[in-house]
Specification:
Radius of gyration: 24 Å
Number of helices: 2
Number of strands: 12
Oligomer: single chain
Strand content: 25-35%
Order of helices and strands: HEEEEEEEEEEEEH
Structural class: alpha+beta
């Protein structure tokens, strides 16, 4: 009877241990909220992120280079500037910090438009990884497609690694679609939605083991429009099943040991 009583008291402790073991451990993502470089309007540079895409030329706007991606200040949309008409829409309501990144759908771009970062962490056996990104759509230029069935407007969020040939190898992906978003009220911009990319627990034979963890964004379909990105988070997610098995198996062993000591 005493053993059963001890087991009853031990199980909540075991559950607590398993819950603690399931807590994610953050991995640093540099410029995770796209606050650099600081801008009062828009900048095609994105500190600590690597861009691919066509090298555009100045189109008369004063902006040149890879113009499909960049950062912008989160402000109300005011087409004629201060002192004119009232702003058309307020700032993005749930942005993190003062700035976000924009990612323009460009299906004809060569090379392909991507935004990526290689972190300082490496893939380890027995661990799973979770990428969380706040995604939104442009108020004026929401991603669109002329063929929603065969070429829907999608944004690919990916975890992977770059191989010895500098080719990106996928580990896990998730897709954001315009259908995931509720149209905002008049005078409001699209709120951001968190999208998760969760890998399986890596085994000893996985090609990613020992490779640097890389994050990449790319347009996976559509004909035009702009996605907004913010608050990129990456974490190690311990496998909860391992902690539960170890703890449950350990309780009877501990009780048996105690009986032997008595």
């Amino acid at each position: 009877m005493r053993s059963i009583t001890r087991l009853v008291f031990a199980l909540p402790l075991c559950a607590g241990f398993a819950l603690h073991a399931d807590r994610a451990v953050a991995i640093e993502v540099l410029n995770h909220s796209f606050e650099a470089p600081g801008t009062v309007f828009v900048d095609t540079l994105i500190t600590h992120w690597v861009k691919t895409g066509p090298d555009g030329t100045d189109d008369g706007t004063g902006i040149s280079g890879q113009i499909d991606t960049g950062v912008f200040f989160n402000s109300a949309i005011d087409l004629d500037g201060p002192g004119g008409d009232d702003p058309i829409a307020g700032p993005i309501p749930n942005a993190d910090g003062n700035q976000l990144a924009f990612f323009q759908v460009n299906p004809t771009a060569a090379p392909e438009v991507t935004l990526s970062q290689v972190t300082a962490a490496t893939y380890t056996a027995g661990e799973a990884y979770k990428l969380t990104v706040a995604v939104g759509m442009s108020y004026f230029f929401a991603p669109t497609s002329t063929d929603p069935v065969n070429n829907p407007a999608l944004l690919e969020l990916a975890l992977g690694f770059f191989d010895s040939s500098d080719e990106f190898q996928l580990v896990q992906t998730a897709l954001a679609s315009p259908s995931d978003f509720v149209p905002p009220a008049p005078g409001s911009q699209f709120a951001l939605i968190d999208f998760d990319v969760l890998t399986d627990v890596l085994g000893t034979g996985d090609a990613a083991l020992g490779e640097s963890i890389a994050i990449r964004f790319r347009a996976a379909g559509g004909t035009g429009g702009v996605w907004n990105l913010d608050n990129v988070r990456l974490a190690v997610v311990p496998e909860p099943g391992v902690a539960v098995v170890m703890c449950v198996a350990g309780v009877p062993l501990a009780l048996a040991r105690r009986r032997r000591l008595r």
